[in-house]
């Protein structure tokens, strides 16, 4: 059978947890070699180590068969994952990498609810999710796309507020910002494309999902 190709983040917050989950499911890789693609020692599986931003498109386009990525990246790159005609499907929520995408506002400026964002510039690395949210709430504000250190933008005058990932809230706090509205609750999810797999690959994926379910159950 053709190898089942799995995309995970090469290096970052999700990498080790993804590898450890796959290891606990019985898949062994040579972790010393951080190559783009590495074949599992004992199963017809290839691991593809890439930037998390690329995983949704790789799965959509069939470059990979399945992938593990934050729901935030999936929603940003592919759109609403709950829609039935979405080309990439969430098949498991994995219970790690939890965070939320929230709007944050300067502590020094009075906040009077969502309307306070009207006419403001909001810095974010998630312009698609933010724009969809603002539109759904009929708020006219400008999403300013920034690739990193979004939390510093209000203090340097680039934006009035931000929309960013939050876990403990410490980053917002130390930059004089407060979380005011949560747009999306996120965690790492296992995704697959709508494309048909070979029947042996499909069977292998079914067995892998059973192992993943067993692993998730054992840790709860
Ligand atoms: O290089 P590559 O593009 O692959 O990685 P990356 O830098 O884009 O992503 P990475 O490794 O930072 O995060 C990968 C995924 O982890 C994200 O897409 C989320 O799904 C998830 N995740 C969970 C988080 C956080 N928690 C998180 N706290 N991603 C980022 N943060 C950042 C946030 O952007 C902010 O700067 O942490 C800061 C806030 O943390 P607190 O604890 O101070 O609130
Ligand atoms: Zn990224």
Describe the protein in words:
The chain has 220 residues and is of the alpha/beta class. It folds into two domains: 4-97 and 187-219, Periplasmic binding protein-like II (D-Maltodextrin-Binding Protein, domain 2, 3-Layer(aba) Sandwich); 99-186, 3-Layer(aba) Sandwich (D-Maltodextrin-Binding Protein, domain 2). Helix content is 27%, strand content 29%. The chain is elongated and about 60 Å long. The chain binds phosphoribosyl ATP (PRT) and zinc ion. Zinc ion binds at residues 51-53.
List keywords for this structure.
magnesium ion binding, six-stranded mixed β-sheet, ATP phosphoribosyltransferase activity, 6 helices, binds zinc ion, elongated, binds phosphoribosyl ATP, D-Maltodextrin-Binding Protein, domain 2, amino-acid biosynthesis, 27% helix, 2 domains, alpha/beta, EC 2.4.2.17, 220 residues
Based on CA atoms alone, the radius of gyration comes out at 19 Å
Number of individual domains: 2
**Strand and helix order:** EHEEHEHEEEHEEHEEH
What is the first-to-last residue Cα distance?
A: 34 Å
Mean pLDDT across the residues is 95
Summarize the structure.
It is built from six helices and eleven strands.
Q: Which helices and strands occur, and which strands form pairs?
A:
Elements: E1 4-9, H1 15-24, E2 37-39, E3 45-50, H2 55-60, E4 66-70, H3 71-78, E5 88-93, E6 99-106, E7 121-124, H4 127-136, E8 142-145, E9 161-166, H5 170-174, E10 177-186, E11 188-193, H6 199-219
Parallel strand pairs: 1-3, 1-4, 7-8, 7-9
Antiparallel strand pairs: 2-3, 4-11, 5-11, 6-9, 6-10
The structure holds phosphoribosyl ATP (PRT) and zinc ion.
């Amino acid at each position: 059978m053709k190898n089942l190709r799995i995309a995970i983040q090469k290096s970052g917050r999700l990498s080790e947890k993804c590898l450890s989950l796959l290891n606990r499911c019985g898949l062994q890789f040579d972790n010393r070699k951080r190559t783009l693609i590495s074949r599992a020692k004992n199963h017809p599986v290839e691991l593809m180590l890439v930037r998390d931003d690329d995983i949704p498109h790789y799965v959509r386009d069939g470059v990979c068969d399945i992938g593990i990525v934050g729901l935030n990246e999936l929603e940003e790159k592919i759109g609403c994952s709950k829609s039935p005609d979405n080309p990439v499907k969430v098949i498991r929520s994995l219970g790690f990498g939890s965070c939320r995408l929230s709007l944050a506002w300067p502590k020094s400026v009075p906040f009077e609810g969502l309307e306070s964002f009207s006419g403001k510039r909001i810095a974010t690395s998630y312009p698609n999710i933010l724009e969809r949210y603002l539109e759904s709430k009929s708020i006219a504000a400008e999403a300013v796309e920034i690739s990193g250190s979004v939390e510093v933008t209000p203090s340097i005058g680039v934006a009035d507020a931000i929309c960013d990932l939050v876990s403990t809230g410490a980053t917002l706090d130390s930059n004089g910002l407060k979380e005011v509205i949560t747009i999306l609750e996120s965690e790492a999810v296992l995704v697959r494309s709508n494309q048909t797999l070979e029947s042996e690959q499909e069977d292998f994926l079914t067995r892998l999902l059973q192992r993943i379910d067993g692993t998730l159950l054992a840790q709860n």
